Amino acid sequence: MDKACLTLVIIGALNWLLIGIFQFDLVASIFGGQSAILSRIVYSLVGLAGAWCIGLLFRDWHHPATVRE
After folding, report:
1. What is the full per-residue pLDDT of the chain (69 aa) written as tens digits?
2. Contact present, 39 and 31 (Cβ < 8 Å)
3. Which residues, at least 6 apart from 2, have a Cβ–Cβ distance to it below 8 Å?
């Protein structure tokens, strides 16, 4: 689940990069405009993924990894 959410967050970040530099919304252009239902679904999924990734900031990363022999 973490990798899927990170992937969506990266897609959202790249879309914002395109908007910021080129004023081009890739998601809207692919799915038929900002108010198209598919665009709104993608925007919502990216937002939910971002909310999920907030939890990654507070995760305890200091547990030793399991070593396989």
Report:
1. 889 999 999 999 999 999 999 999 999 999 999 999 999 999 999 999 999 999 988 887 776 665 565
2. yes
3. 52, 53, 56
